[in-house]
Specification:
Helices cover 23% and strands 35% of the residues. The chain is built from eleven helices and 28 strands. Strand 1, helix 1 and strand 2 form a beta-alpha-beta unit. The longest helix is centred in the first third of the chain and has 16 residues. The chain is globular, with a radius of gyration of 25 Å. The two termini are 45 Å apart.
């Protein structure tokens, strides 16, 4: 039996789940529902018997976080493609198909977003078996989700006649744009309509053949982007000039709505795209009052609300149908039925040039992370966590000095011509202009308090001389 190659798309920013999800650390990289991130859940669900190593497609900013998360769950991707610019799902799938078809055009590839929740994994496996048969017969199969209600936020798929070669799969009669409420209710009353999940299964060669017929410019741009790609450590960088020429379009619009090879596999799999806080309340485990709480939350007379704190103790009294989300630098409060309006707040923050729209205080790096503690005139304090094996670049700063205090673990320090070790409760001083490096070659996390002082404390006051992660 031919193994399916998962193609996991991880390029979204999850704006509607702000303030937890932000551009530099979006929802698919976070554990919103279980113990693992949504990306990890997706990779685990599409691994094991019947599946090959995945291809992951993401942007440059998330590459090290994604590699680390795959390492945590013991999955080694076939490759991680770095998109230089977002071009929607059709070009992303084309890149994977080009690479797979070069070895075998009959390779089965399953295109899946990294940020979907599937609460019935056994049923998902059954649907994959149905879709596999249809795809082996040359069909481009989409997973159609059994609707739970007259949802106006999804496109719909109407099933046609049953497929002869795949029991349980159907021809697609038509794709329908997001309907109004009355039309959506009609679809439920009529039956045979499914939500468009954005998950697909097809042969690499079959997808490329339809793309060549329907979107030749897109295919040509993607082919050139792959041909001119470069290797960067464990990543493959698509050529920016070529990839930017690909039209930005979804698989649905580019191919599925125009091909006569479209099929649908109905999927009652507990699917949710977790696109808003109200959806997370809907799928969450509720208490007797209909509440979903995460983190340090204390309530009195609260009903049907979603309250999440990843920061301080959060208390609520006498409220109903609210969403309250607290991080260490932002608080969101709104009625549950206004969950779709969060994007407007984020757009406003960006318009004001505020960093909270895109970045958390904790900034992830390939060596670990750093987090701002306090700042004022001519000083800034940060906490650094350097994981085992983490090595910061050999660098210097023209306009600031740095003071390092080891809180836990052990540090290897390069300061000018000196190389020495610091234990917990020991410290050192790095004068302006001095080449320096921080390393953790020891088998426990290293935590350091860094105090920067000087006339200018911007992140761009850095000159790198060596960097094992290939950063400029």
């Amino acid at each position: 039996m031919t193994d399916i190659v998962p193609v996991i798309l991880s390029g979204g920013s999850g704006t509607r789940l702000w303030p937890l999800s932000r551009t530099l650390y979006p929802k698919q990289l976070q554990a919103l529902y279980g113990d693992h991130s949504m990306l990890q859940e997706t990779a685990a669900r599409t691994s094991g018997d019947g599946f090959a190593a995945p291809i992951i497609i993401c942007n440059n900013e998330h590459r090290f976080i994604i590699a680390e998360q795959m390492l945590e769950i013991g999955i080694s991707p076939r490759t991680i493609f770095l998109e230089p610019i977002g071009r929607n799902t059709a070009p992303a799938a084309a890149v994977a198909a080009i690479v797979l078809a070069a070895q075998d055009p009959d390779t089965l590839m399953m295109v899946v977003p990294s940020d979907h929740l599937i609460r019935k994994p056994d049923d998902f496996a059954d649907v994959c078996a149905v879709a596999r048969k249809a795809a082996m017969g040359g069909k481009l199969v989409t997973f159609g989700v059994e609707p739970r209600g007259p949802e106006t936020g999804y496109g719909y798929i109407q099933q046609g006649a049953a497929l002869d070669q795949a029991d349980g799969a159907f021809h697609v009669a038509r794709f329908v744009e997001k309907p109004d409420l009355e039309t959506a209710q009609d679809y439920l009353n009529i039956g045979g309509y499914f939500w468009n999940s954005g998950m697909f299964l097809f042969k690499a060669g079959a997808y490329l053949a339809e793309l060549e017929r329907l979107q030749p410019e897109m295919l040509a741009a993607c082919q050139k982007a792959v041909d001119c790609a470069t290797t960067d450590m464990d990543f493959t960088r698509l050529d920016e000039a070529a990839f930017s020429q690909a039209p930005s379009d979804s698989i649905d619009y580019a191919v599925m709505e125009h091909t006569d090879k479209a099929a649908v596999a109905p999927a009652d799999i507990g699917w949710n795209d977790v696109g808003s806080w109200s959806e997370l309340w809907h799928v969450g485990v509720k208490d007797d009052a209909g509440n979903v709480f995460h983190g340090d939350v204390v309530s009195l007379d609260v009903h049907d609300s979603y309250i999440r704190s990843s920061g301080p103790l959060t208390t609520a009294i006498g409220v109903k149908d609210l969403v309250v989300v607290v991080t260490d630098d932002a608080v969101l409060v709104m009625p549950k039925d206004r969950a779709q309006d969060v994007k407007g707040v984020v757009d406003g923050l960006r318009g004001e040039g505020r960093s909270e729209g895109d970045a958390h205080r904790r900034m992830y790096r390939p060596w670990g992370w750093y987090q701002s503690i306090d700042s004022g005139e001519k000083f800034q304090a940060k906490q650094l966590m350097v994981k085992y094996g983490g090595i910061l670049s050999l660098q210097s700063h023209k306009r600031r000095a740095e003071h390092w205090v080891v809180v836990s673990g052990r540090a290897r320090i390069t300061r000018g011509d000196e190389v020495f070790q610091l234990e917990a409760n020991q410290s050192t001083y790095i004068p302006p202009g001095t080449k320096h490096r921080l390393e953790n070659p020891y088998d426990e996390p290293l935590r350091i308090i860094e105090v920067q002082s000087g006339e200018y404390l911007g992140e761009d006051d850095i000159e790198r001389f060596e960097d094992i992660y290939g950063r400029d």
